[in-house]
Amino acid sequence: MWKFLLFIAAVIIWPTSAQEGSVRLVGGSGAHEGRVEVFHDNQWGTICDDGWDIADARVVCRQLGYPGADEAKVFSFFGEGTGRIWLFDVRCVGNETSISQCWHRGWGYHHCNHREDSGVVCTLDDCASSPCAHGICTDGHMSYTCSCENGWTGTNCDHNIDECLSSPCIHGTCIDEVATYTCSCELGWTGHDCDQVEDCSTSPCAHGICTDGVPSFTCSCENGWTGLKCDQDIDECASNPCWLGGTCLDHVNGYSCVCPKDATGKHCETGPLHWLEGEPSSPVDMCVLLDSSNSYQAKTVFCTEQHNYICQSALKSCAPNVCQNGGNCTSCFGGSTTFCDCPGGFGGNLCEINIDEYASSPCQNGGICIDDLNTYHCICPTGFQGDNCELDIDLCSPDPCPSGFTCQDVGSSIYCLG
Protein backbone atom coordinates (compact mmCIF):
# COMPACT_ATOMS: atom_id res chain seq x y z
CA MET A 1 0.00 0.00 0.00
CA TRP A 2 2.77 2.49 0.88
CA LYS A 3 4.70 1.63 -2.28
CA PHE A 4 1.62 2.39 -4.38
CA LEU A 5 1.06 5.77 -2.68
CA LEU A 6 4.69 6.80 -3.16
CA PHE A 7 4.49 5.92 -6.87
CA ILE A 8 1.37 8.05 -7.35
CA ALA A 9 3.03 11.00 -5.58
CA ALA A 10 6.08 10.72 -7.84
CA VAL A 11 3.92 10.84 -10.97
CA ILE A 12 2.06 13.92 -9.79
CA ILE A 13 5.18 16.01 -9.00
CA TRP A 14 7.28 14.88 -12.03
CA PRO A 15 8.62 18.15 -13.53
CA THR A 16 8.26 18.98 -17.25
CA SER A 17 9.41 21.92 -19.37
CA ALA A 18 6.65 21.44 -21.99
CA GLN A 19 3.58 23.67 -21.94
CA GLU A 20 0.04 22.94 -23.01
CA GLY A 21 -0.17 22.95 -26.82
CA SER A 22 3.60 22.66 -27.39
CA VAL A 23 4.79 20.66 -30.40
CA ARG A 24 7.93 18.66 -31.12
CA LEU A 25 9.39 16.69 -34.05
CA VAL A 26 10.53 13.11 -33.50
CA GLY A 27 12.36 10.60 -35.70
CA GLY A 28 13.78 12.91 -38.36
CA SER A 29 17.36 13.22 -39.58
CA GLY A 30 17.58 16.69 -38.06
CA ALA A 31 15.76 19.05 -35.74
CA HIS A 32 13.85 20.55 -38.68
CA GLU A 33 11.89 17.37 -39.57
CA GLY A 34 10.05 14.46 -37.96
CA ARG A 35 6.77 13.05 -36.66
CA VAL A 36 4.59 15.80 -35.15
CA GLU A 37 3.73 15.34 -31.48
CA VAL A 38 1.64 17.77 -29.45
CA PHE A 39 1.59 18.19 -25.64
CA HIS A 40 -1.86 18.04 -24.01
CA ASP A 41 -3.04 17.09 -20.58
CA ASN A 42 0.58 16.46 -19.49
CA GLN A 43 1.11 13.89 -22.24
CA TRP A 44 2.71 13.87 -25.67
CA GLY A 45 0.55 12.48 -28.48
CA THR A 46 0.47 12.32 -32.27
CA ILE A 47 -1.77 13.86 -34.97
CA CYS A 48 -3.76 11.72 -37.41
CA ASP A 49 -2.93 12.44 -41.07
CA ASP A 50 -6.56 12.67 -42.27
CA GLY A 51 -6.75 16.03 -44.05
CA TRP A 52 -3.09 16.81 -43.22
CA ASP A 53 -1.57 19.22 -45.78
CA ILE A 54 1.12 21.88 -46.31
CA ALA A 55 -0.99 24.58 -44.59
CA ASP A 56 -1.01 22.52 -41.40
CA ALA A 57 2.73 21.85 -41.76
CA ARG A 58 3.47 25.60 -42.06
CA VAL A 59 1.72 26.31 -38.75
CA VAL A 60 3.71 23.58 -36.97
CA CYS A 61 7.02 24.84 -38.43
CA ARG A 62 6.17 28.46 -37.60
CA GLN A 63 5.37 27.42 -34.02
CA LEU A 64 8.85 25.85 -33.83
CA GLY A 65 10.54 29.02 -35.15
CA TYR A 66 11.23 27.99 -38.75
CA PRO A 67 10.45 30.36 -41.65
CA GLY A 68 8.17 27.85 -43.38
CA ALA A 69 7.52 24.25 -44.37
CA ASP A 70 8.85 22.30 -47.35
CA GLU A 71 6.68 19.18 -47.03
CA ALA A 72 3.72 17.67 -45.14
CA LYS A 73 4.35 13.95 -44.53
CA VAL A 74 1.65 11.22 -44.00
CA PHE A 75 1.41 7.49 -43.30
CA SER A 76 3.95 7.57 -40.44
CA PHE A 77 6.79 8.66 -42.75
CA PHE A 78 9.03 9.23 -39.71
CA GLY A 79 7.90 6.09 -37.85
CA GLU A 80 4.91 5.23 -35.70
CA GLY A 81 4.37 6.96 -32.43
CA THR A 82 3.07 5.51 -29.16
CA GLY A 83 0.51 6.61 -26.67
CA ARG A 84 -2.36 8.98 -27.39
CA ILE A 85 -3.47 10.32 -30.76
CA TRP A 86 -4.56 13.79 -29.76
CA LEU A 87 -5.77 15.47 -32.98
CA PHE A 88 -7.73 14.36 -36.02
CA ASP A 89 -8.92 16.11 -39.19
CA VAL A 90 -6.87 19.24 -38.51
CA ARG A 91 -7.75 22.15 -40.81
CA CYS A 92 -5.39 25.17 -40.53
CA VAL A 93 -6.01 28.37 -42.47
CA GLY A 94 -2.29 29.16 -42.39
CA ASN A 95 -2.10 32.30 -40.23
CA GLU A 96 -2.33 30.53 -36.87
CA THR A 97 0.63 30.73 -34.47
CA SER A 98 0.13 27.24 -32.96
CA ILE A 99 -1.46 23.98 -34.10
CA SER A 100 -3.96 24.08 -31.21
CA GLN A 101 -5.53 27.23 -32.76
CA CYS A 102 -6.46 25.31 -35.93
CA TRP A 103 -9.89 23.72 -36.29
CA HIS A 104 -10.00 20.02 -35.33
CA ARG A 105 -12.50 17.42 -34.10
CA GLY A 106 -11.54 17.80 -30.46
CA TRP A 107 -8.76 16.57 -28.22
CA GLY A 108 -8.53 12.80 -28.24
CA TYR A 109 -11.33 12.21 -30.78
CA HIS A 110 -10.25 10.10 -33.80
CA HIS A 111 -10.72 6.84 -35.66
CA CYS A 112 -7.05 6.44 -36.63
CA ASN A 113 -4.07 4.35 -35.60
CA HIS A 114 -0.38 5.18 -35.41
CA ARG A 115 0.21 4.00 -38.98
CA GLU A 116 -1.40 7.35 -39.92
CA ASP A 117 0.79 9.65 -37.85
CA SER A 118 1.55 13.04 -39.47
CA GLY A 119 4.99 14.55 -40.08
CA VAL A 120 6.59 17.73 -41.47
CA VAL A 121 9.82 18.92 -43.10
CA CYS A 122 10.45 22.53 -42.05
CA THR A 123 12.32 25.06 -44.16
CA LEU A 124 15.90 25.66 -43.10
CA ASP A 125 17.78 28.92 -43.76
CA ASP A 126 20.67 27.31 -45.57
CA CYS A 127 22.49 30.68 -45.63
CA ALA A 128 22.53 30.96 -41.83
CA SER A 129 26.02 29.45 -41.64
CA SER A 130 27.38 31.98 -44.20
CA PRO A 131 28.67 29.28 -46.57
CA CYS A 132 29.70 31.73 -49.33
CA ALA A 133 33.28 32.74 -48.48
CA HIS A 134 33.51 35.57 -51.04
CA GLY A 135 29.98 36.05 -52.31
CA ILE A 136 26.28 36.58 -51.56
CA CYS A 137 24.15 33.61 -50.42
CA THR A 138 20.61 33.03 -51.73
CA ASP A 139 18.50 30.50 -49.81
CA GLY A 140 16.62 27.90 -51.88
CA HIS A 141 14.48 24.84 -51.35
CA MET A 142 16.70 22.72 -49.12
CA SER A 143 19.74 24.30 -50.77
CA TYR A 144 21.47 27.61 -51.44
CA THR A 145 23.36 29.33 -54.23
CA CYS A 146 26.35 31.67 -54.06
CA SER A 147 26.84 34.72 -56.27
CA CYS A 148 30.62 35.15 -56.24
CA GLU A 149 32.60 38.39 -56.10
CA ASN A 150 34.93 39.18 -58.97
CA GLY A 151 38.00 36.97 -58.90
CA TRP A 152 36.36 34.07 -57.00
CA THR A 153 34.61 30.87 -58.12
CA GLY A 154 33.39 27.51 -56.74
CA THR A 155 30.17 26.38 -55.04
CA ASN A 156 31.10 28.41 -51.96
CA CYS A 157 33.12 31.12 -53.77
CA ASP A 158 36.27 29.90 -52.05
CA HIS A 159 38.54 29.38 -55.07
CA ASN A 160 40.61 32.31 -56.32
CA ILE A 161 40.47 32.62 -60.10
CA ASP A 162 44.00 32.60 -61.52
CA GLU A 163 43.91 35.50 -63.96
CA CYS A 164 47.38 34.51 -65.18
CA LEU A 165 46.16 31.23 -66.72
CA SER A 166 45.44 33.02 -69.98
CA SER A 167 49.07 34.31 -70.12
CA PRO A 168 48.04 37.95 -70.56
CA CYS A 169 51.58 39.39 -70.24
CA ILE A 170 52.96 39.30 -73.79
CA HIS A 171 56.54 40.26 -72.94
CA GLY A 172 56.69 39.91 -69.18
CA THR A 173 55.93 37.86 -66.08
CA CYS A 174 52.35 37.67 -64.79
CA ILE A 175 51.63 38.19 -61.08
CA ASP A 176 48.18 36.95 -60.01
CA GLU A 177 46.10 39.10 -57.66
CA VAL A 178 42.47 38.96 -56.48
CA ALA A 179 40.24 39.77 -59.47
CA THR A 180 43.17 41.18 -61.44
CA TYR A 181 46.84 40.74 -62.33
CA THR A 182 49.96 42.81 -62.90
CA CYS A 183 52.77 42.36 -65.41
CA SER A 184 56.49 42.74 -64.75
CA CYS A 185 57.73 43.73 -68.20
CA GLU A 186 60.95 42.71 -69.88
CA LEU A 187 63.44 45.43 -70.77
CA GLY A 188 62.18 47.44 -73.71
CA TRP A 189 58.47 46.73 -73.20
CA THR A 190 55.77 48.64 -71.36
CA GLY A 191 51.97 48.80 -71.03
CA HIS A 192 49.52 46.91 -68.83
CA ASP A 193 50.15 43.68 -70.75
CA CYS A 194 53.78 44.45 -71.73
CA ASP A 195 52.62 44.69 -75.34
CA GLN A 196 53.98 48.14 -76.16
CA VAL A 197 57.53 48.86 -77.22
CA GLU A 198 59.10 51.24 -74.73
CA ASP A 199 60.70 53.93 -76.90
CA CYS A 200 61.85 57.48 -76.45
CA SER A 201 58.32 58.87 -76.82
CA THR A 202 57.74 57.90 -73.18
CA SER A 203 60.81 59.90 -72.03
CA PRO A 204 62.32 56.98 -70.10
CA CYS A 205 65.72 58.62 -69.50
CA ALA A 206 65.41 60.63 -66.28
CA HIS A 207 68.75 62.49 -66.65
CA GLY A 208 70.02 61.68 -70.09
CA ILE A 209 69.43 61.61 -73.84
CA CYS A 210 67.29 58.80 -75.28
CA THR A 211 68.12 56.97 -78.52
CA ASP A 212 65.57 54.61 -80.09
CA GLY A 213 66.72 51.12 -80.98
CA VAL A 214 65.42 47.63 -81.73
CA PRO A 215 63.87 46.28 -79.66
CA SER A 216 64.59 48.86 -76.99
CA PHE A 217 66.21 52.24 -76.39
CA THR A 218 69.46 53.42 -74.85
CA CYS A 219 70.13 56.32 -72.50
CA SER A 220 73.24 58.49 -72.63
CA CYS A 221 73.44 59.78 -69.09
CA GLU A 222 74.38 63.27 -67.98
CA ASN A 223 77.49 63.60 -65.84
CA GLY A 224 76.82 62.41 -62.33
CA TRP A 225 74.05 59.95 -63.28
CA THR A 226 74.03 56.24 -64.12
CA GLY A 227 71.62 53.31 -64.56
CA LEU A 228 69.66 51.99 -67.56
CA LYS A 229 67.35 55.00 -67.31
CA CYS A 230 69.89 57.46 -65.86
CA ASP A 231 67.93 57.61 -62.61
CA GLN A 232 70.72 56.74 -60.15
CA ASP A 233 72.89 59.53 -58.71
CA ILE A 234 76.58 58.61 -58.70
CA ASP A 235 77.98 58.96 -55.18
CA GLU A 236 81.24 60.81 -55.74
CA CYS A 237 82.02 60.45 -52.02
CA ALA A 238 82.13 56.64 -52.26
CA SER A 239 85.89 56.73 -52.91
CA ASN A 240 86.53 58.81 -49.74
CA PRO A 241 88.35 61.62 -51.60
CA CYS A 242 88.73 63.95 -48.59
CA TRP A 243 91.99 63.65 -46.66
CA LEU A 244 93.10 64.51 -43.13
CA GLY A 245 89.65 63.88 -41.60
CA GLY A 246 87.75 66.08 -44.05
CA THR A 247 83.99 65.54 -44.49
CA CYS A 248 82.76 64.78 -48.03
CA LEU A 249 79.52 66.34 -49.34
CA ASP A 250 78.07 64.61 -52.42
CA HIS A 251 76.65 66.78 -55.22
CA VAL A 252 75.32 65.97 -58.67
CA ASN A 253 78.44 65.35 -60.78
CA GLY A 254 80.81 66.43 -58.05
CA TYR A 255 81.62 66.74 -54.38
CA SER A 256 83.17 69.14 -51.92
CA CYS A 257 85.29 68.62 -48.83
CA VAL A 258 84.75 70.40 -45.52
CA CYS A 259 88.27 70.49 -44.10
CA PRO A 260 89.32 70.52 -40.44
CA LYS A 261 91.23 73.54 -39.20
CA ASP A 262 94.76 73.92 -40.56
CA ALA A 263 93.95 71.74 -43.62
CA THR A 264 93.37 73.20 -47.11
CA GLY A 265 92.95 72.10 -50.69
CA LYS A 266 90.11 70.55 -52.69
CA HIS A 267 90.78 67.24 -50.96
CA CYS A 268 92.04 68.74 -47.65
CA GLU A 269 95.38 67.42 -48.81
CA THR A 270 97.50 70.31 -47.47
CA GLY A 271 98.02 70.15 -43.74
CA PRO A 272 99.66 72.67 -41.38
CA LEU A 273 103.19 73.85 -42.21
CA HIS A 274 106.04 72.50 -40.09
CA TRP A 275 109.33 74.34 -39.62
CA LEU A 276 112.29 72.37 -40.83
CA GLU A 277 114.80 74.09 -38.52
CA GLY A 278 112.59 75.16 -35.65
CA GLU A 279 110.49 78.28 -35.27
CA PRO A 280 112.48 81.40 -34.32
CA SER A 281 112.24 82.36 -30.69
CA SER A 282 111.74 86.09 -31.40
CA PRO A 283 110.20 88.09 -34.25
CA VAL A 284 112.72 88.57 -37.05
CA ASP A 285 112.64 89.79 -40.61
CA MET A 286 112.47 86.37 -42.19
CA CYS A 287 110.72 84.75 -45.13
CA VAL A 288 109.24 81.30 -45.59
CA LEU A 289 111.01 79.17 -48.15
CA LEU A 290 109.41 76.07 -49.67
CA ASP A 291 112.54 74.03 -50.10
CA SER A 292 112.23 72.13 -53.40
CA SER A 293 115.30 70.11 -52.52
CA ASN A 294 113.61 68.71 -49.40
CA SER A 295 110.04 67.74 -50.41
CA TYR A 296 109.01 71.42 -50.30
CA GLN A 297 109.14 71.59 -46.52
CA ALA A 298 109.00 75.10 -45.12
CA LYS A 299 112.01 76.73 -43.51
CA THR A 300 112.87 80.27 -42.50
CA VAL A 301 115.50 82.33 -44.29
CA PHE A 302 116.48 85.99 -44.22
CA CYS A 303 114.60 87.96 -46.82
CA THR A 304 117.54 88.71 -49.09
CA GLU A 305 116.07 87.42 -52.32
CA GLN A 306 112.79 86.28 -53.80
CA HIS A 307 111.89 82.67 -53.25
CA ASN A 308 108.79 80.55 -53.82
CA TYR A 309 105.68 82.12 -52.32
CA ILE A 310 102.98 80.58 -50.18
CA CYS A 311 99.76 81.24 -52.08
CA GLN A 312 96.83 83.00 -50.48
CA SER A 313 93.21 83.53 -51.44
CA ALA A 314 90.44 85.78 -50.15
CA LEU A 315 87.73 84.09 -48.10
CA LYS A 316 84.08 84.28 -49.11
CA SER A 317 80.81 82.89 -47.79
CA CYS A 318 79.67 79.41 -48.77
CA ALA A 319 76.38 78.66 -50.47
CA PRO A 320 74.76 76.68 -49.00
CA ASN A 321 76.00 77.00 -45.43
CA VAL A 322 76.90 73.43 -44.44
CA CYS A 323 77.98 74.37 -40.91
CA GLN A 324 75.77 73.35 -37.99
CA ASN A 325 74.85 75.06 -34.70
CA GLY A 326 75.25 78.58 -36.10
CA GLY A 327 78.70 78.05 -37.59
CA ASN A 328 79.92 80.45 -40.29
CA CYS A 329 80.91 78.77 -43.55
CA THR A 330 83.73 80.27 -45.65
CA SER A 331 85.59 79.02 -48.70
CA CYS A 332 88.68 79.96 -50.69
CA PHE A 333 90.51 79.04 -53.86
CA GLY A 334 87.34 79.13 -55.93
CA GLY A 335 85.28 77.08 -53.49
CA SER A 336 87.68 74.13 -53.56
CA THR A 337 88.35 74.48 -49.84
CA THR A 338 85.63 75.00 -47.23
CA PHE A 339 85.97 75.89 -43.55
CA CYS A 340 83.53 76.17 -40.65
CA ASP A 341 84.15 78.92 -38.10
CA CYS A 342 82.33 77.49 -35.09
CA PRO A 343 80.69 79.56 -32.34
CA GLY A 344 81.88 79.15 -28.79
CA GLY A 345 81.03 75.80 -27.28
CA PHE A 346 81.06 73.84 -30.56
CA GLY A 347 83.76 72.11 -32.61
CA GLY A 348 84.26 69.56 -35.37
CA ASN A 349 84.50 69.97 -39.15
CA LEU A 350 80.83 70.95 -39.33
CA CYS A 351 80.52 72.42 -35.79
CA GLU A 352 78.55 69.29 -34.91
CA ILE A 353 80.33 68.62 -31.57
CA ASN A 354 79.18 70.31 -28.35
CA ILE A 355 82.38 70.94 -26.39
CA ASP A 356 82.18 69.88 -22.75
CA GLU A 357 83.87 72.78 -20.94
CA TYR A 358 84.05 70.95 -17.62
CA ALA A 359 85.76 67.86 -19.04
CA SER A 360 89.04 69.30 -17.71
CA SER A 361 87.57 69.60 -14.16
CA PRO A 362 88.38 73.32 -13.73
CA CYS A 363 86.62 73.66 -10.35
CA GLN A 364 89.01 73.24 -7.42
CA ASN A 365 88.59 72.28 -3.77
CA GLY A 366 85.55 70.05 -4.40
CA GLY A 367 83.62 72.61 -6.42
CA ILE A 368 80.85 71.39 -8.73
CA CYS A 369 81.23 72.31 -12.42
CA ILE A 370 78.12 73.34 -14.42
CA ASP A 371 78.53 73.24 -18.23
CA ASP A 372 77.10 76.27 -20.03
CA LEU A 373 77.18 77.19 -23.70
CA ASN A 374 80.81 78.11 -24.45
CA THR A 375 81.55 78.49 -20.75
CA TYR A 376 81.00 77.01 -17.30
CA HIS A 377 80.53 78.08 -13.71
CA CYS A 378 81.51 76.55 -10.39
CA ILE A 379 79.37 75.99 -7.30
CA CYS A 380 81.89 76.32 -4.46
CA PRO A 381 81.74 74.50 -1.11
CA THR A 382 81.60 76.49 2.11
CA GLY A 383 84.88 78.27 2.78
CA PHE A 384 85.94 78.73 -0.86
CA GLN A 385 85.24 81.31 -3.55
CA GLY A 386 86.51 82.51 -6.92
CA ASP A 387 85.70 81.52 -10.52
CA ASN A 388 87.29 78.11 -9.95
CA CYS A 389 86.79 77.93 -6.13
CA GLU A 390 90.52 78.54 -5.85
CA LEU A 391 90.33 81.17 -3.03
CA ASP A 392 90.20 80.01 0.60
CA ILE A 393 87.94 82.34 2.60
CA ASP A 394 89.49 83.39 5.93
CA LEU A 395 86.65 82.64 8.33
CA CYS A 396 88.66 84.22 11.20
CA SER A 397 88.50 87.68 9.60
CA PRO A 398 86.92 89.42 11.33
CA ASP A 399 87.70 87.48 14.49
CA PRO A 400 84.43 85.93 15.78
CA CYS A 401 85.95 84.52 19.01
CA PRO A 402 85.50 86.12 22.48
CA SER A 403 88.30 88.11 24.02
CA GLY A 404 91.16 85.93 25.17
CA PHE A 405 90.50 83.20 22.58
CA THR A 406 92.42 82.50 19.40
CA CYS A 407 90.50 81.83 16.16
CA GLN A 408 91.61 78.89 14.03
CA ASP A 409 90.22 78.39 10.45
CA VAL A 410 90.04 74.69 9.51
CA GLY A 411 88.39 73.97 6.16
CA SER A 412 84.82 75.17 6.36
CA SER A 413 84.86 75.43 10.20
CA ILE A 414 86.41 77.69 12.85
CA TYR A 415 87.63 76.82 16.33
CA CYS A 416 88.09 79.23 19.27
CA LEU A 417 91.06 78.11 21.29
CA GLY A 418 91.46 79.49 24.84
Protein model, in words:
There is one protein chain. The protein has 418 residues and is mostly beta strands. Among the domains are: 102 residues, SRCR-like domain (Mac-2 Binding Protein); 34 residues, Laminin (Ribbon). 5% of the residues lie in helices and 33% in strands. The protein has 2 helices and 33 strands. Strands 1, 2, 3, 4, 5 and 6 form a 6-stranded mixed sheet that branches. It has a 3-stranded antiparallel sheet with strand order 23-24-25, with no helix packed on it. It has a two-stranded antiparallel sheet with strand order 7-8. The chain is elongated, with a radius of gyration of 53 Å. One of its GO terms (molecular function) is calcium ion binding. It holds the Pfam family hEGF. One of its GO terms (cellular component) is membrane. InterPro entries: C-type_lectin-like/link_sf, EGF, EGF-like_Ca-bd_dom, EGF-like_CS, EGF-type_Asp/Asn_hydroxyl_site, EGF_Ca-bd_CS, Notch_Cell-Fate_Det, SRCR.
